[in-house]
Write a structure and sequence with these properties.
Layout: H1 11-21, E1 25-29, H2 37-42, H3 46-49, E2 52-57, H4 62-68, H5 71-82, E3 86-89, H6 92-105
Parallel strand pairs: 1-2, 2-3
InterPro entries: DUF8170
Pfam families: DUF8170
Length: 106
Amino acid sequence: MEDVFDFTEDWTAKFKLLLSYADTIVGVYEHSHGGHCWEAGFIDQYEYRTRTQAFYRVYADDDDQYEAYNGMFWTHMRSLENIGRARSWTDRATLLQQVDQLALQS
């Protein structure tokens, strides 16, 4: 298996390079499980934050909402929302509509 490319090799360096060259950084989140909290925290730095737009899912049921996001990640989404850099969505159609609106503003 040594000849199989490991996409996680040097992931941090690749991620940082990708961010450095991106005009716009877009994150779409349904929950904070799965390890993407590091990436979300990294793009919170000023040089990336000014180019970031996040779309986070909200759930109708309070228990589902509470289960979906840990406190640190939820605070991050709310802080982005407070500066106009995050939008919520409830289903795929709403997400696509939000993305279209953002594209029209650019």
